[in-house]
Write a structure and sequence with these properties.
The complex is a heterodimer of chains A (162) and B (410). By secondary structure, chain A is mainly alpha-helical. Chain A has 6 helices and 3 strands; from the N terminus they run H-H-H-E-H-E-H-E-H. Helices cover 39% and strands 8% of the residues of chain A. Chain B is globular. Classes of the chains: A mainly alpha (162), B mainly alpha (410). At the A-B interface, helix 3 and helix 4 of A face helix 2, helix 6 and helix 18 of B.
Chain lengths: 162, 410
């Protein structure tokens, strides 16, 4: 990714640039508009009037994976949906992050059966797990802020570019 | 991991018209990740320019195995699964399930207070579900503000649910034989406040949408569903009532004491997208009427049946009564046995007839559960009513039949 790789490790220049880039990423993160099940309704609630996730720079939900950098897996992932989910993840440009929202996406939740992936981490790498069935909108916002914490600590040299 | 299935024309050859095979018409894939399919529905469209020639729904992207999973649990534990079926109508799913269990085991002494509480909460849930529908309908037609207003009001209802059950969405508040526990004292005030606020809000929505020329132009005459076609496909709920059929289980097969309440069933005869919208708006007002009547004559008294074979004793009794302790132990370790019989019980969910077929085998776990979910049958009629319309109208039609994918795929 352009400048980040060219810079490598140039001491104070890299560090300052890193913190600036990371700061700007946290304040303009575009999640993908992608709901699976019950949690999607709470995800909608988190964007609506009462909780208003746009306070944290997230008002733009993109329907296209090519424009988004955060995937919120909101709901249970079935065996039929898994490959589709993976393809959507692969279509997102780097750098990208994933939140597994809710118990089903985190560990299968109440559904321990043939149809559901026991955690979406079997399909895509997950950064933050949000517990709850479904999590309250506050919990989702906390999950997003946890992703921000992670993004703020990221180093250019650690970025894996595929 | 499984690879993504290639979409080839070969697989759908028998479903599309001849013209698609020669390349005269275009095949377009809509979903499973699409903001207007309300979840993970995939539609394969055959288009002639902008006109939809054929529409083939492909479901199963949210198949959860709920029916099978319920067979592995006791009757009390299986109820948790029903919440996650149709996640906009959790109270209604619980009601259909507990009614089926009560019918199966012959538990017929559900107290009147519990019945009235069930009616109040189910009607609140109907309003909440229609609010999500209205918000999403607005979003699909590019009316963003309606979505924000609807979710503001939905929070009021979710606060009431949280008050009674401790959870916003997955309540599991109804139990075989009554409800989990009595409502807190603040319940009545919270519902009265809602009853006071909400009629004005419905007027507000109507002001925003009902006579809005942009809105009317996009809906009137679009997606006409004929009465006979609707009946052939087993369509139920507001979608059916908008086609002029007077069929509402609350009136025609009253349950839970619905016969004591005075309310109308909104009917429209136009059968188009606009009629379906109007029916749901009218249902807001009718539900409010039912809630008000039920709240006015909400009797005091127990909220759970006294039949200790099926209903656990209150905590206070366990410390003093040996028998209560035994019942409690039996119920929570083993569950209660149900006879070798099968029952069907149905309720009117916000989307239509939600039926629960339950078969017992003499043990504490159900032998078979089958769900008759309204969205499934309502979606089946979609290919009939979108033919000849624009792709943009397809979005409006799909939104107007109000499907929930959890309900379809279960």
């Amino acid at each position: 990714m352009g400048i980040e790789q060219k810079l490598g490790n140039m001491g104070v220049v890299t560090t300052s640039l890193e913190s600036m880039v990371n700061w700007s990423r946290t304040n303009a993160m575009w999640p993908m508009l992608f709901g699976l099940a019950c949690c999607a309704i709470e995800m909608m609630a988190a964007q609506a009037s009462d909780y208003d996730m746009s306070r944290f720079g997230m008002e733009l939900m993109r329907a296209s994976p090519r424009q988004s950098d955060l995937m919120i897996v909101a709901g249970r992932v079935s065996k039929k949906m898994g490959p589709v989910l993976r393809q959507l993840y692969d279509q997102m440009p780097e750098p990208k992050w994933v939140i597994a929202m809710g118990d089903c996406a985190s560990c299968g939740g109440v559904f321990n059966n043939y149809a559901i992936y026991q955690g979406v981490d079997e399909v895509v790498p997950v950064d933050v797990y949000v517990a709850g069935c479904p999590p309250r909108p506050e919990a989702l916002i906390h999950g997003v802020l946890t992703v921000y914490e992670k993004v703020k600590g990221e180093k250019f040299k650690d970025l894996v570019v595929s | 991991m499984a690879q993504l299935e290639e979409v080839s024309i070969e697989k759908f050859k028998h479903l599309v018209s001849e013209r698609a095979l020669t390349g005269e018409t275009m095949l377009l894939n809509m979903g499973p990740q699409h903001p207007s399919t309300h979840g993970v529905l995939r539609l394969l469209l055959e288009l002639d320019g902008e006109i939809v020639v054929n529409c083939i729904p492909d479901i199963g992207y949210l198949h959860t195995g709920i029916e099978k999973n319920m067979e592995a649990k006791t009757y009390q534990k299986a109820e948790v699964m029903t919440d996650r079926l149709d996640y906009m109508n959790t109270m209604g799913n619980n009601l259909a399930y507990v009614m089926a269990v009560e019918k199966l085991v012959g538990l017929d002494d559900v107290p009147v207070r519990a019945q009235a509480l069930r009616v109040i909460l189910v009607e609140l849930q109907r309003i909440a579900s229609h609010l999500v529908w209205l918000g999403a309908f607005g979003l699909d037609l590019a009316a963003m503000s309606v979505f924000l207003y609807c979710f503001r009001d939905r929070e009021l209802i979710l606060d009431i649910f949280e008050l009674v059950s401790g959870q916003r969405m997955m309540t599991t508040y109804f139990r075989p034989g009554g409800v989990w526990r009595d409502v807190p004292v603040e319940f009545e005030k919270a519902v009265r406040d809602f009853l006071k606020i909400f009629p004005r809000r419905v007027d507000e929505y109507e002001k925003l949408m009902t006579k809005n020329p942009l809105f009317v132009d996009r809906l009137v005459g679009i997606g006409h569903l004929d009465k006979d076609v609707a009946l052939q496909y087993g369509v139920t709920g507001p979608t059916l009532r908008a086609s002029g059929v007077d069929w509402d289980l609350r009136k025609s097969r009253p349950y839970c004491g619905y016969e004591q309440y005075d309310f109308n069933v909104p009917i429209r005869t136009e059968g188009d997208t606009y009629a379906r919208y109007l029916v749901r708006i009218d249902e807001f007002r009718e539900s409010l009427k039912i809630i008000e009547q039920a709240l006015n004559k909400l009797p005091m008294g127990p909220v759970r049946s006294e039949n200790r074979k099926f209903v656990p004793p209150p905590r206070s009794e366990i410390g003093t009564s040996m028998e209560a302790l035994i019942h409690h132990f039996k119920l929570w370790t083993e569950g209660f046995p149900a006879p070798k019989a099968s029952v069907y019980s149905a309720v009117e969910s916000p989307r239509g007839e939600l039926g629960m077929y339950l078969e017992g085998d003499g043990g504490p776990k159900p032998h078979r559960i089958h769900l008759r979910t309204p969205s499934f049958d309502n979606l089946a009629v979609l290919p009939e009513i979108v033919k000849g319309h624009f792709v943009a109208d397809l979005v409006a039609i799909l939104a107007s039949i109000d499907i929930v994918l959890g309900d379809i795929d279960r």
